[in-house]
Amino acid sequence: MRVMGVDPGLTRCGLSVVEGGTGRQVIALDVDVVRTPSDAPLAERLLTISNTVDHWMDTHVPDVVAIERVFANQNANTAMGTAQAGGVIALAAARRSIDVHFHTPSEVKAAVTGNGRADKAQVTAMVTRILALQTKPTPADAADALALAICHCWRAPMIARMAAAEAQAAEQQRRYRATLKAKAKAKKGSSPAPSRSAT
């Protein structure tokens, strides 16, 4: 499974692509950070991110895109920029029929380090170790993008099982409702016709 991990942001947007192997083996294929100047118009900044993401998706052809979910405790401006960048990336994936999954920062940290409150230095160190990289990925946005991809690789089997269970439950509910509807219809059809009074 090829996963594109994205740490969205307007000023710095981390992008990565990894290949999931057997077990917990993960191989890094590419990583980079898209930068846009803070004084540029918003539309131009989003276009820069969109163009870069389009190139990455067309080049690497990922099976799934893992994006960091907007963190509620961020300040309003940061959260807005993160959400806008994430939306552009999710849209690019949807146009290519690529599945998109969102992971919270704590989910990613817990998956990579075992601690949902790990700091950026711990995440970077573990990403470097897991991927057997010669040097630490910098800046932190690059490490975070790789961590997101790793997180999804390791959580994908659980996500697939949950989706299958939800689909099975929905199908059982559909069948149950159909059975109730059929019984109600049969009961209505078998009811004796009301007698007519003699005229």
From TrEMBL:
Annotated positions binding Mg(2+) 1: D7, D141
Binding site for Mg(2+) 2: E68
Catalytic residue list: D7, E68, D141
Low complexity bias locations: 189-199
Enzyme class at the top of the EC tree: hydrolase
E.C. number(s) listed in UniProt: 3.1.21.10
A Pfam family reported for this protein in Swiss-Prot or TrEMBL: RuvC
Family: Belongs to the RuvC family.
Role summary: The RuvA-RuvB-RuvC complex processes Holliday junction (HJ) DNA during genetic recombination and DNA repair. Endonuclease that resolves HJ intermediates. Cleaves cruciform DNA by making single-stranded nicks across the HJ at symmetrical positions within the homologous arms, yielding a 5'-phosphate and a 3'-hydroxyl group; requires a central core of homology in the junction. The consensus cleavage sequence is 5'-(A/T)TT(C/G)-3'. Cleavage occurs on the 3'-side of the TT dinucleotide at the point of strand exchange.
Name assigned to this protein: Crossover junction endodeoxyribonuclease RuvC
Source species of the chain: [Mycobacterium] manitobense
Lineage: Bacteria, Bacillati, Actinomycetota, Actinomycetes, Mycobacteriales
Gene label: ruvC
